[in-house]
Amino acid sequence: MSDIIIYGRGKTGLSLGNLLKQQGKNVCFYDDNIGFDGNGKFSNDSVVILSPGVKPSAPGVKAAKAAGAKIIGELEYCFPLCKGRTISVTGTNGKTTVCEMIYHVLKLDGKRCKLLGNGGTPLSSQVLSVTEQDVVVLESSSFQLDNCRNFAPNVSVFTNFANDHLDYHGSVENYASAKINNFRCQRPEAYAVFNWDDANTKEISSLCKCRKLYYSLADKRADVYFENGKVIVKFGNEIDTVDAEFLMQFAKHNQSDALAAILACRAAGLGTESIVQALGTYCFLPHRLQFVTEINGVKFVDDSKATNVHATVNALANYTEPLALILGGSSKGEPFDAIFESISDNTVLVSAVGDTAEQIAKTGKKFGVDVTVLYDIKYAVEYCYRKMLPIGGTVLMSNACASFDSFSGYAERGDYFQKSVRELACGEKAC
Q1: Nearest CA to 273 among 243, 304, 295?
Q2: Disulfide: which of 4, 124, 188, 287 matches 304 by Cβ 3.0-4.6 Å?
Q3: What is the C-alpha separation between 388 and 253, in angstroms, rounded?
Q4: pLDDT digits over 241-276, tens only?
Q5: What angle do CA 329, 332, 334 make, to 5 degrees?
Q6: pLDDT tens digits for 27-51?
Q7: pLDDT of residue 1
Q8: Longest dimension (CA), the chain
Q9: DSSP label of 390
Q10: What CA dihedral angle connects 12, 14, 20 and 24, to 10 degrees?
Q11: H helices of 268-328, where?
Q12: How many C-alpha atoms does 342 have within 13 Å on its Cβ side?
């Protein structure tokens, strides 16, 4: 019988297999489609490492539990092998941006660092090369934090919390429990960074037993806040005030992300002024409120990375001009009520695409909002443009849904949106 069973053959599963073989372990793979790849079986002696995409409700997970197997995740297995300092970022939205910001600042400060985790390079593929001089910036999803009971990063960041991934976790309580593992086992001398402006996150922070730091866009009770183009940081006995006019150009939720990054880097030992100066040179990743082009007074913005309702609500808060909103994709088991509760009078048009189009239209009707069901993004781009042409404004695709109904991921969906916009621009002789 194998020493360890790896559940899943995706990128993380294969990476785990390579790691375990380097350690001289006997490895067996399992997935629900083809079962074991050898003579493996679940027993009370088995250690089963789940790939992040394996749902807790999967048949094999139930079988492993019934057999008394020990079930853990990649993070749980790899963390004890990591010799460097660790900054782990989780939250419903903003994880990737905050991680990228922290990594950018650390690199410019001359630190040896690695950016690993959710959606990128698996921790298991790099963990054996991490030295005591390295700082590992980890994007930690709820999938990775599930089945994780001994994870203790030096610095943790919790950006926000809202309903998400209910199709995976089964309930908001299970989702929250997984997220809390980001700081649950931190040592008393460690730092945990929380969003003061998010009521759910502030409540969750009461469970934290290490040194807590809070960031806010305006509340002066927080350890870092933004006021009149300046960042004010209270850390220990020090109070730093640094000019940060460039933050005025960021969307509000990205301003919040920047403050989270500032506190995380401050907790990691960097000075406030050098942190803010480095952030001034940061460039955002694509598909996050990305301006595409303007055609005859109508602007187009790609926010395909908004894969849940909370992200779309955040996006809407940045617009006061006339707005046409494109929603929809594949379902994550999340209701859409919060979007229509937050829509203001400047949103003059809502269209829906993808598998959730009918559900979105039904929710809109409940709130007295007419939703045009168009199914395909290309049709929605054309329709919204024609409707907005007389008044100008912005066509915003902020889906509030996953993308797996028609695309491999949010990036492919965003690329398709941008391609559709460019084709429209050429047809309008604006290319």
Answers
A1: 243
A2: 287
A3: 26
A4: 999 999 999 999 999 999 999 999 999 999 999 999
A5: 105
A6: 999 998 889 987 789 999 999 999 9
A7: 45
A8: 70
A9: T
A10: -170
A11: 272-279, 309-316
A12: 17
